[in-house]
Specification:
The complex is a heterodimer. Chain A is mainly alpha-helical. Chain A is built from eleven helices and no strands. In chain A, helix 7 (171-191) runs antiparallel to helix 9 (206-221). Chain B is 4% helix and 50% strand.
């Protein structure tokens, strides 16, 4: 019972409600352009921070483990993501900000274990490249695919990661991923209140999603010695399936047919990886 | 999907030296016996909290150590053991991986566990061994009884005792898995990984 309250209550309902409340409050000021840029990213980072604080003392606020930097990386991403989306920021400047965030995240998330494979230097470079690629590929999605629906798909991928971690790797990291999923889901539920600023809202949260969920997938993948699960890195990248709808016959789909097909295609890699990890042992 | 791992708990740490018939005692050279998986077995048993304890047994496949003995008095003088925590094994692969993860042993962060005796009191074959156990990055003094036989063939030792995992910072799963873990150490019996 205590664990259920810990996971579903403090780790789920509280961060979701916090994020929803913050996005809703920001929507009261939606006429002001910065509100649209900062709302989702700041709400998700704050809600994740709150949920993290409510976890038991194994989730230390003063980082003693590599993954305990995640709340601070979320805060950094909540600033850099919206800044990169400000009017007047050039594409190459957006790339530089994303690169800065990816390198900072990789630097603290890659542990200094002597038996780490690849070695720490290579791991930092590869993780930074993964986070940067994830962030930029999602950021470049066409406008019509980047609305609140995108936040919903982020929550879906983060939720799947949480379940896989909880069931097959480590319950601690599963709970942390659950907090992230709940925070994103909370923001998504009220993202529609931003009306025409929806795409901006979601796009400004892309770097945060990449660092938080991509970072969690990495730390989960390397958690158990002798049982590395690189396939977990596919889960945060599942929303990239939306690129199939950027052009070609699927781009012409409208309404519910478009929605159902998009969700189905994003679910495909999620279900495949989850089944591989959970049932493959 | 059953969360099998969540039902696995480190309940006991057992280092046993077996004097059972058919066992092979650890050879003594001079006053030293070298301990390893070929002549020693270290097992643990953890149980779940509540009405269904559902005990889980595990062990370690890689470790090394030494026992100093007084062959004339037939007493144990000192013992040290260093265990590679990622050599942990159980009968259930998913449980094995869960125990290696950050929820329990946190093997990536703490790849070794150590025991070093500081005091041994002997009365006949019965010994009381006191020493420092380093597990999960925490060092605590523990004492446990052991039955020791020193003969022409070598050293045999059997010990069973319990430790509180929470005292070593393994606090995850409180309420689901008992904090008390049983350990059995048998010198004179080969480790057979499951």
């Amino acid at each position: 019972m205590e664990l259920a309250i810990e996971i579903l209550g403090r780790g789920g309902v509280v961060p979701a409600a916090c994020a929803a409340q913050l996005v809703w409050l920001a929507s009261r000021f939606r006429a002001a352009e910065p509100a649209g840029r900062y709302a989702a990213a700041v709400a998700i980072a704050a809600a994740f921070g709150l949920g993290y604080v409510l976890l038991p003392d194994w989730a230390a606020l003063v980082p003693q483990r590599h993954w305990q930097w995640l709340p601070y990386l979320a805060l950094l991403a909540a600033v850099l993501g919206p800044v990169a989306r400000a009017a007047g920021v050039q594409a190459f400047e957006r790339w530089l900000l994303a690169l800065l965030l990816a390198v900072a995240a990789a630097w603290v998330l890659v542990p200094a274990w002597s038996d780490l494979v690849p070695a720490r230097g290579w791991s930092i470079a590869l993780l930074a490249a993964y986070l940067l690629a994830l962030s930029m590929a999602l950021d470049a999605l066409p406008e019509r695919l980047a609305g609140p629906r995108l936040l919903g798909l982020f929550a879906l991928a983060a939720g799947a990661l949480a379940i896989v971690l909880l069931v097959s790797i480590t319950a601690k990291l599963g709970q942390v991923a659950g907090v992230a999923a709940a925070a994103i889901a909370g923001a998504w539920t009220v993202a529609g209140s931003f009306e025409r600023n929806e795409a901006l809202l979601s796009r400004a949260a892309v770097p945060l999603y990449a660092v938080l969920v991509g970072g969690l997938a990495y730390v989960g993948a390397i958690e158990v010695p002798g049982a590395t699960h690189w396939e977990l890195l596919v889960l945060p990248a599942a929303p990239l399936a939306l690129w199939v709808f950027a052009a070609g016959p699927l781009a012409k789909l409208q309404g519910w047919a478009a929605l159902a097909t998009q969700i189905g295609l994003v679910l495909l890699p999620i279900v495949a990886v989850a089944a591989w990890v959970v049932l493959g042992e | 999907m059953k969360r099998t791992c969540s039902w696995l708990v480190l309940v006991g740490l057992v280092v046993a030296t077996s004097a059972a018939s058919g066992a092979s005692p650890a050879a003594i050279q001079g006053k030293t016996a070298t301990l390893g998986p070929d002549n020693t077995k270290i097992e643990f048993v953890g149980v779940h909290s509540g009405a269904k304890p559902d005990p889980r047994t595990g062990g370690f496949a890689k470790f090394k150590g030494q026992a100093e003995v007084d062959p004339a008095a037939k007493t144990l003088q000192a013992v040290t053991l260093e265990i590679a925590t990622d050599s942990l094994f159980t009968e259930i692969p998913k449980l094995t991986n869960h125990l290696k993860s950050g929820d329990f042993f946190e093997c990536r962060e703490y790849p070794t566990a150590k025991f070093e005796s500081t005091k041994i009191e002997a009365a006949g074959g019965k010994h009381k061994i006191t020493g420092k156990l380093t597990l999960h990055g925490v060092t605590k003094e523990i004492s446990f009884p052991a039955t020791v036989e020193i003969g022409a063939h070598g050293l045999q030792l059997t010990s069973e005792f319990k430790i509180d995992r929470s005292q070593f910072g393994m606090t995850y799963g409180a309420g689901q898995v008992e904090n008390e873990v049983s350990l059995a150490v048998v010198v004179g019996e080969k480790t057979v990984p499951k």
